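Students often ask why inverse folding is considered easier than folding. One informal answer: many sequences map to the same fold, so there is more than one right answer. In these notes we will look at a single instance of the problem. The structure comes first.
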């Protein structure tokens, strides 16, 4: 008897956060015919999403949206600022179905432990994406750069790469990754998600603070006089990562940072825009996370510490209400 192909289970996706990345994933999943619910702030509403693809073609999709998480088994993509994540999980806690998978997709580190404490019996995954997205207006997103999305279980921190046949994927894992890859390639499961998250953290530590403090586009950091600072940041971050059990090399990370600077030369970093619009930054979850781990591991990170303090001072000044 011939083997019958098993149909992939229908997945319900709930996107927590309607910024550029949240809208990109929501729109791409809708374009692929997936069931999507967008979870908005209480004062926001929409019934549609607009997507401009890399080929310049514009698409408009009807979308389910409200300020409430639907209590049903689903994949919950958390696409918020890092400092918003814990409060959002608390707010929607009673509506997070026991069978749901929570996927943390944001800059920085430091939200995993609080989320695990709030959801001790849920599957919590981490994800990192290099796709570029620009929110041109509310619920209208442009896909600005092809990238890759890595997803992994928070406890799988091994640096050993296994073959696909050896990877301990459940059906749910395979379904989620396949659906994401169909909607927004390339997406894949990683047994080494800690390496990917730390790599992106170092890139953020190098680019975000300098572009925010100087209020410049990413490409300005390609100027020669920024290289010593970028190198020191990478060196300090890699020392902390290595002591924390994640193998990173300074030269490799510096090369990745320079690659991102050139690839996103005309872009503004997220922290740059936070300063520009006088919004809270993710400083505590980017440089702040590195500094906290460095303190615990008794490692000196003077460059990161100086940048962190400068950012804190600037943020405090910008976010002060007028007298």
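Output (designed amino acids):
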């Amino acid at each position: 008897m011939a083997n019958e192909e098993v149909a992939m289970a229908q997945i319900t996706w709930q996107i927590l956060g309607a910024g550029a990345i949240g809208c990109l994933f929501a729109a791409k999943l809708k374009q692929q015919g997936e069931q999507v619910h967008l979870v908005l702030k209480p004062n926001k509403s929409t019934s549609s999403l607009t997507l401009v693809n890399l080929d310049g073609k514009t698409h408009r999709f009807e979308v389910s949206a409200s300020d409430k998480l639907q209590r049903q088994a689903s994949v919950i993509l958390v696409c918020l600022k890092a400092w918003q994540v814990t409060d959002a999980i608390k707010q929607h806690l009673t509506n997070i179905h026991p069978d749901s998978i929570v996927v943390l997709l944001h800059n920085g580190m430091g939200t995993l432990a609080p989320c695990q404490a709030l959801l001790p019996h849920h599957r919590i995954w981490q994800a990192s994406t290099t796709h570029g997205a620009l929110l041109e207006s509310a619920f209208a997103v442009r896909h600005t750069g092809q990238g890759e999305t890595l997803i992994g279980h928070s406890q799988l921190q091994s640096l050993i790469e296994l073959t696909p046949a050896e990877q301990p994927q459940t059906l749910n894992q395979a379904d989620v990754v396949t659906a994401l890859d169909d909607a927004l390639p390339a997406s894949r499961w990683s047994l080494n998600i800690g390496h990917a998250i730390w790599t992106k953290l170092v890139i953020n530590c190098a680019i975000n603070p300098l572009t925010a403090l100087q209020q410049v586009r990413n490409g300005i950091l390609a100027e020669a006089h920024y290289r010593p600072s970028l190198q020191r940041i990478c060196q300090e971050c890699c020392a902390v990562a290595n002591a924390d059990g994640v193998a990173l090399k300074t030269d490799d990370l510096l090369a990745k940072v320079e690659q991102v600077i050139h690839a996103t030369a005309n872009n503004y970093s997220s922290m740059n825009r936070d300063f520009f619009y006088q919004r809270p930054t993710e400083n505590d979850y980017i440089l702040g996370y590195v500094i906290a781990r460095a303190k615990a591991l008794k490692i000196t990170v003077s460059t990161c510490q100086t940048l962190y303090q400068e950012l804190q001072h600037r943020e405090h000044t910008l976010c002060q209400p007028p007298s």
